[in-house]
């Protein structure tokens, strides 16, 4: 918040209670909250006129807004930020929610990406929002490499990693490749690749080719070198954003303006633009972070809120993130512990597998 922004500690008890009840009422119903509604269950006996005066003061401070003439009030983005920072009560993780998330990481037979996909499905299911899971760069040691000829112009490289992850990548091999040259290239790579990650394999291969060129023929050498270029530039080896539950956001859309914002969000998710920024958002602070409306630089055009938390590997290095995105009327108190728990569970799962 800026220096001119209101401070929750500077409000008197009545203003703070009115503000809190307006925000909580809006987050629960999505509708403006009126003075008569607050009067019915206010902690002290005050008139609707008194509460209206307090609401007008809060509106003057930029914390509340009135969407329609003679309607109740809703929190502004500034108001939501003030509420989240100063008044939000984070609940405990519901037992059923915990069980649904736990079930996604119980199988050791699936690769990490498949598990993270299931985590995203579960996260969107329990939060009724869209889930975002940023998978890590695959840095597990390589266990086995195999080349498969598909045609004269297409070949498949199968990469098996030490953690059980398998990647199949189609590429264009150098001209003149034969099944025997592919086997020779695979044998050469398997002899030197074991224990190395894709990130450091390129340097190892270049060094080995110089010292052992006599051991492989020209065709196999060309295939190996072509593979080095393929692996260095292949997009699948970089961070990947898994998005699940976009349909949940459509259910939140009321008027045309809401639907237009959601369509903008869908376009952003479809393009997965600036994916690296998603991890940047999580890395800027430990634990769960909440971005409201335009504070969320990744999806700011849609006016959405993002609750995000990084997860770490066994070396306590941040390697990915999980989050939930939805309208600003998110149930923050419930979603924060869900995202926090999911991030810790994913980090533990990856650490155990490594």
Automatic annotation (TrEMBL):
InterPro entries on file: GAF-like_dom_sf, HrcA, HrcA_C, WH-like_DNA-bd_sf, WH_DNA-bd_sf, WHTH_transcript_rep_HrcA_IDD
Domain Heat-inducible transcription repressor HrcA C-terminal, residue spans: 114-336
An annotated Gene Ontology molecular function: DNA binding
GO BP terms: negative regulation of DNA-templated transcription
Pfam families found in the cross-reference section: HrcA
UniProt KW keywords: Repressor, Stress response, Transcription, Transcription regulation
Function statement: Negative regulator of class I heat shock genes (grpE-dnaK-dnaJ and groELS operons). Prevents heat-shock induction of these operons.
Family statement: Belongs to the HrcA family.
Descriptive protein name: Heat-inducible transcription repressor HrcA
């Amino acid at each position: 918040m800026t220096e001119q922004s209101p401070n929750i500690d500077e409000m008197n008890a009545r203003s703070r209670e009115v503000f809190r009840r307006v925000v909580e009422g809006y987050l629960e119903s999505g509708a403006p909250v009126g003075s008569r509604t607050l009067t019915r269950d206010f902690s002290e006996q005050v008139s609707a006129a008194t509460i209206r005066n307090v609401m007008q003061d809060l509106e003057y401070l930029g914390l509340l807004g009135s969407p329609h003439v003679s309607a109740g009030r809703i929190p502004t983005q500034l108001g939501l930020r003030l509420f989240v920072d100063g008044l939000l009560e984070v609940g405990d993780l519901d037992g059923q929610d915990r069980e649904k998330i736990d079930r996604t990481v119980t199988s050791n037979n699936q690769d990490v990406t498949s598990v993270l996909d299931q985590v995203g499905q579960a996260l969107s299911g329990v939060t009724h929002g869209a889930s975002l899971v940023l998978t890590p760069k695959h840095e597990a040691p390589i266990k086995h490499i195999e080349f498969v000829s598909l045609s004269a112009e297409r070949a498949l490289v199968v990469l098996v990693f030490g953690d059980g992850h398998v990647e199949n990548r189609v590429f264009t091999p150098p001209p003149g490749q034969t099944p025997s040259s592919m086997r020779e290239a695979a044998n050469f790579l398997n002899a030197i690749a074991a224990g190395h990650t894709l990130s450091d394999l390129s340097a190892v291969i270049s060094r080995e080719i110089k010292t052992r060129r006599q051991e492989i023929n020209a065709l196999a050498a060309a295939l190996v070198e072509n593979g080095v270029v393929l692996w260095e530039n292949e997009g699948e080896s970089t961070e990947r954003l898994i998005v699940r539950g976009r349909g949940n956001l459509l259910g939140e859309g009321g008027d045309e303006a809401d639907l237009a914002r959601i369509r903008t969000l869908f376009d952003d998710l479809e393009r997965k633009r600036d994916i690296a920024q998603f991890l940047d958002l999580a890395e800027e602070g430990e634990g769960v972070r909440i971005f409201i409306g335009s504070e969320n630089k990744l999806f700011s055009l849609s006016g959405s809120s993002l609750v995000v938390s990084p997860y770490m590997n066994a070396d306590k290095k941040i390697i990915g993130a999980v989050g939930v995105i939805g309208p600003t009327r998110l149930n923050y108190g419930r979603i924060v512990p869900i995202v926090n728990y999911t991030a810790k569970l994913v980090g533990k799962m990856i650490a155990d597998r490594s």
